[in-house]
């Protein structure tokens, strides 16, 4: 049941006003999504003229290389490759690995449909193809890596040949359900892979390497993007052993992987003094900060006082929600309309059998119970258009969500406990469904108080 308004809390407004505020939150997210586009990022940071490719501050004379190899992988692989070829034109060649099929296939490229969030057989086939190709590159080769979120799963090659596809999938499943922050998950992925944690760069030690990155990780942790395949790794084997112990991972790992931890047999990843990185450059061209700025600018035009809080990145969804709602209520004491924006991701530790949903819808449904009866609207959605096991990007909740759900015969508490939020929000018309966006710059949370 909604709680009565406390002293100093505005009286609940009509359903019409609440509907308008839900629409505003949705518009803010969709605006940020449209403005945080890969074509626009490439127009700003990548250009080509008279045979010279500019990537941010660097210039590359493509005619000076015997071979230019392009590897695009992750959720934004197709979009990034199209943006690059729009600049350079036809004639490039390489490999594309993505969790979605391309609209059209470009001549000169081999395509692989890798799995996400769990690797599949194509992920391993792509990993073998990339590994073999990189070893053929010479000092007269240029490797262009187009890297985006989701790259960890779509391309994989176990460093230990005794680790099967089934074992890789079981390991990823254990990591995803552990509740560990993505940086910790990726630290373990790096040390189990022949391509991650800088080992992709190690496979082509002589080549000039340039990484163009659409980032779904914190700006200060770029080596977590797609598990840092082309960058020096800041994590260590000791970190991996500590993470496994902290999250009680060993019982959930398959025997072939668990045995590596028990024997302390993980191999260290390359660090910043590795010679392979001497001719390597890394350029993030798009990140979550772009989405935050666009949402904030649009919210200002709607008359909101805006503040950004990224302090809860990688927190448990309940702790993050409590933190943001407390701050929102404090901000509302000084102004009549306030917008709090938060980027990054929250974690959800799934216990037992889960329903259909994802971290964003779980966050929104938890908030729905906390804001019942208040003039607060909460949106949480992923810029990749995919939230967990659902077809939605996320959802919107407000002070009337619990009552509306109960009136529709739904049980919010049961849905929250069962990690099964999608059906509830879909029934209420409050799911955010964009389809895969071909982009991925982490999640965006927009909280409005009025």
UniProtKB/TrEMBL annotation:
It holds the Pfam family DUF4147. Residues 25-261 form the MOFRL-associated domain. GO terms for molecular function: glycerate kinase activity. InterPro entries: GK-like_C_sf (IPR037035), GK_N_sf (IPR038614), MOFRL (IPR007835), MOFRL_assoc_dom (IPR025286), MOFRL_protein (IPR039760). It comes from the Bacteria. GO terms for cellular component: cytoplasm. Residues 338-443 form the MOFRL domain. PANTHER family: GLYCERATE KINASE. This is DUF4147 domain-containing protein.
């Amino acid at each position: 049941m909604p709680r009565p308004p406390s002293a100093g809390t505005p009286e609940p407004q009509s359903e019409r006003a609440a509907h308008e505020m839900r629409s505003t939150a949705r518009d803010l997210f969709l605006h940020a999504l449209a403005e945080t586009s890969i074509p626009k990022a490439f127009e700003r940071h990548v250009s080509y003229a008279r045979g010279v490719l500019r990537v941010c501050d660097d210039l590359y004379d493509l005619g000076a290389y015997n071979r230019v190899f392009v590897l695009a992988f992750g959720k934004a692989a197709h979009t990034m490759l199209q943006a690059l070829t729009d600049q350079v034109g036809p004639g490039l060649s390489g490999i594309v690995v993505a969790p979605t099929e391309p609209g059209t296939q470009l001549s000169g490229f081999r395509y692989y449909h890798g799995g996400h969030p769990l690797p599949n057989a194509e992920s391993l086939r792509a990993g073998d193809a990339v590994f073999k190709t990189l070893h053929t590159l010479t000092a007269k080769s240029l490797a262009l890596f187009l890297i985006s979120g989701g790259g960890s799963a779509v391309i994989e090659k176990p460093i230990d040949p005794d680790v099967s596809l089934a074992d890789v999938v079981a390991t990823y499943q254990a990591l995803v359900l552990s509740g560990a922050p993505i940086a910790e998950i990726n630290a373990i992925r790096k040390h189990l892979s022949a391509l991650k944690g800088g080992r992709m760069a190690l496979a082509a030690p002589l080549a000039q390497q340039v990484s163009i990155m659409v980032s779904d990780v914190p700006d200060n942790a770029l080596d977590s993007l797609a598990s840092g395949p082309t960058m020096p790794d800041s994590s260590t084997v000791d970190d991996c052993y500590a993470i496994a112990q902290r999250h009680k991972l060993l019982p959930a790992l398959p025997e072939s992987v668990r045995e590596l931890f028990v024997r302390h047999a993980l191999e260290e990843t390359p660090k910043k003094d590795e010679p392979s990185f001497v001719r390597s450059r890394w350029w993030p061209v798009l990140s979550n900060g772009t989405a935050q700025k666009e949402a904030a600018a649009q919210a200002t035009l709607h008359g909101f006082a805006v503040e950004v809080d990224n302090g809860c990145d990688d927190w448990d969804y309940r702790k993050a929600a409590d933190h943001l709602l407390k701050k929102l209520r404090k901000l509302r004491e000084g102004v009549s309309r306030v917008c709090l924006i938060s980027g990054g991701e929250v974690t959800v530790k799934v216990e037992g059998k889960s329903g259909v949903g994802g971290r964003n819808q779980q966050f929104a449904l938890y908030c729905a119970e906390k804001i019942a009866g208040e003039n607060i609207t909460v949106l949480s959605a992923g810029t990749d258009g995919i939230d967990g096991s659902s077809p939605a990007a996320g959802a919107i909740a407000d002070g009337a969500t619990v009552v509306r759900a109960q009136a529709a015969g739904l049980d919010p508490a049961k849905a929250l406990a069962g990690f099964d939020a999608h059906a509830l929000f879909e029934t209420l018309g409050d799911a955010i469904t964009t389809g895969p966006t071909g982009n991925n710059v982490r999640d965006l949370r927009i909280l409005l108080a009025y």
